[in-house]
Write a structure and sequence with these properties.
The chain is mainly beta. It contains 1 helix and 10 strands, in the order βββαβββββββ. The chain is globular, with a radius of gyration of 14 Å. A 7-stranded mixed β-sheet has the order 6-7-8-9-4-3-10, covered by helices on one side. It has a 3-stranded antiparallel β-sheet with strand order 1-2-5, with no helix packed on it.
Length: 134
Protein backbone atom coordinates (compact mmCIF):
# COMPACT_ATOMS: atom_id res chain seq x y z
CA UNK A 1 0.00 0.00 0.00
CA UNK A 2 1.15 3.53 -0.83
CA UNK A 3 0.01 6.73 0.84
CA UNK A 4 0.24 10.31 -0.32
CA UNK A 5 -0.78 13.81 0.65
CA UNK A 6 -0.69 17.42 -0.44
CA UNK A 7 1.73 19.96 1.06
CA UNK A 8 -0.63 21.08 3.85
CA UNK A 9 -1.78 17.52 4.59
CA UNK A 10 -5.50 18.19 4.25
CA UNK A 11 -5.83 15.88 1.23
CA UNK A 12 -4.65 12.36 2.03
CA UNK A 13 -5.03 9.17 0.03
CA UNK A 14 -3.92 5.57 -0.18
CA UNK A 15 -3.35 3.24 -3.11
CA UNK A 16 -4.09 -0.45 -2.50
CA UNK A 17 -2.70 -1.85 -5.74
CA UNK A 18 0.05 -1.37 -8.25
CA UNK A 19 0.65 1.92 -9.99
CA UNK A 20 1.15 1.85 -13.74
CA UNK A 21 4.19 2.82 -15.81
CA UNK A 22 5.91 5.96 -14.56
CA UNK A 23 7.21 8.69 -16.83
CA UNK A 24 8.35 12.29 -17.11
CA UNK A 25 5.96 14.51 -19.10
CA UNK A 26 7.40 17.70 -20.61
CA UNK A 27 4.20 19.05 -22.24
CA UNK A 28 3.42 22.73 -21.76
CA UNK A 29 0.30 22.13 -19.66
CA UNK A 30 2.12 19.75 -17.28
CA UNK A 31 4.98 22.23 -16.92
CA UNK A 32 2.63 25.10 -16.16
CA UNK A 33 0.51 23.01 -13.77
CA UNK A 34 3.61 21.86 -11.86
CA UNK A 35 5.75 24.99 -12.14
CA UNK A 36 8.75 22.91 -13.14
CA UNK A 37 10.59 21.44 -16.12
CA UNK A 38 8.36 18.34 -16.18
CA UNK A 39 6.02 16.24 -14.07
CA UNK A 40 6.64 12.65 -13.00
CA UNK A 41 3.37 10.77 -12.91
CA UNK A 42 1.84 7.32 -13.12
CA UNK A 43 -1.62 5.94 -13.83
CA UNK A 44 -3.60 4.31 -11.04
CA UNK A 45 -6.84 2.39 -11.42
CA UNK A 46 -9.58 4.20 -9.50
CA UNK A 47 -10.56 0.94 -7.78
CA UNK A 48 -7.14 1.01 -6.02
CA UNK A 49 -7.30 4.70 -5.09
CA UNK A 50 -8.99 5.75 -1.84
CA UNK A 51 -9.29 9.34 -0.64
CA UNK A 52 -8.82 9.25 3.14
CA UNK A 53 -9.45 12.92 3.89
CA UNK A 54 -9.93 16.28 2.25
CA UNK A 55 -12.56 15.52 -0.39
CA UNK A 56 -13.94 19.02 0.21
CA UNK A 57 -10.46 20.47 -0.44
CA UNK A 58 -10.07 18.96 -3.93
CA UNK A 59 -10.69 21.44 -6.75
CA UNK A 60 -10.67 20.66 -10.47
CA UNK A 61 -9.59 22.65 -13.49
CA UNK A 62 -10.34 21.54 -17.06
CA UNK A 63 -6.96 22.23 -18.67
CA UNK A 64 -8.00 20.84 -22.05
CA UNK A 65 -11.25 19.37 -23.35
CA UNK A 66 -12.04 16.26 -21.33
CA UNK A 67 -8.99 16.52 -19.03
CA UNK A 68 -9.27 17.76 -15.47
CA UNK A 69 -6.37 18.55 -13.18
CA UNK A 70 -7.10 18.26 -9.47
CA UNK A 71 -5.37 20.30 -6.80
CA UNK A 72 -5.71 21.20 -3.12
CA UNK A 73 -7.80 24.34 -2.53
CA UNK A 74 -5.69 25.25 0.51
CA UNK A 75 -2.04 24.76 -0.50
CA UNK A 76 -2.37 24.47 -4.29
CA UNK A 77 -0.55 21.14 -4.55
CA UNK A 78 -1.28 19.39 -7.86
CA UNK A 79 -2.82 16.05 -6.86
CA UNK A 80 -3.84 14.03 -9.91
CA UNK A 81 -5.41 14.39 -13.31
CA UNK A 82 -8.22 12.48 -14.96
CA UNK A 83 -9.70 12.18 -18.43
CA UNK A 84 -13.38 11.72 -19.26
CA UNK A 85 -12.32 9.14 -21.87
CA UNK A 86 -10.59 7.04 -19.15
CA UNK A 87 -13.00 7.03 -16.20
CA UNK A 88 -11.27 4.10 -14.49
CA UNK A 89 -7.85 5.82 -14.32
CA UNK A 90 -6.28 8.80 -12.63
CA UNK A 91 -2.71 9.99 -13.03
CA UNK A 92 -1.06 10.67 -9.71
CA UNK A 93 1.89 12.99 -9.15
CA UNK A 94 4.71 10.92 -7.68
CA UNK A 95 6.07 13.85 -5.69
CA UNK A 96 3.11 13.51 -3.31
CA UNK A 97 3.85 9.92 -2.30
CA UNK A 98 5.11 9.27 1.22
CA UNK A 99 7.34 6.32 0.26
CA UNK A 100 9.13 4.74 -2.68
CA UNK A 101 6.52 3.61 -5.22
CA UNK A 102 8.72 0.73 -6.34
CA UNK A 103 8.75 1.91 -9.95
CA UNK A 104 11.16 4.08 -11.87
CA UNK A 105 10.44 6.37 -14.82
CA UNK A 106 10.57 4.58 -18.16
CA UNK A 107 10.74 7.54 -20.57
CA UNK A 108 10.45 11.25 -21.25
CA UNK A 109 7.33 12.16 -23.24
CA UNK A 110 6.34 15.34 -25.08
CA UNK A 111 9.99 16.30 -25.44
CA UNK A 112 8.91 18.49 -28.38
CA UNK A 113 7.48 20.88 -25.75
CA UNK A 114 10.40 20.62 -23.32
CA UNK A 115 11.52 23.74 -21.45
CA UNK A 116 14.35 25.36 -23.40
CA UNK A 117 16.33 25.89 -20.20
CA UNK A 118 16.28 22.20 -19.19
CA UNK A 119 18.65 19.57 -20.59
CA UNK A 120 17.73 15.90 -20.36
CA UNK A 121 20.91 14.16 -19.24
CA UNK A 122 19.76 10.61 -18.49
CA UNK A 123 19.58 7.66 -20.89
CA UNK A 124 15.80 7.13 -20.76
CA UNK A 125 14.01 6.92 -24.12
CA UNK A 126 12.66 10.24 -25.38
CA UNK A 127 9.44 10.66 -27.35
CA UNK A 128 8.60 13.87 -29.18
CA UNK A 129 4.94 13.32 -28.30
CA UNK A 130 3.34 10.50 -26.31
CA UNK A 131 4.70 6.97 -26.04
CA UNK A 132 2.32 5.58 -28.68
CA UNK A 133 4.28 7.29 -31.42
CA UNK A 134 7.09 4.70 -31.30
Amino acid sequence: MLTGSCLCGRVRYEINGKIGPTGHCHCVTCRKAQGGAFVTNAPVRTKYFHLLSGADMVAEFESSPGKKRCFCRNCGSPLWSRRAAEPDLIRIRLGLLDADPGRRPLAHVWVSEKASWYDITDDLPQFQRGVDEA
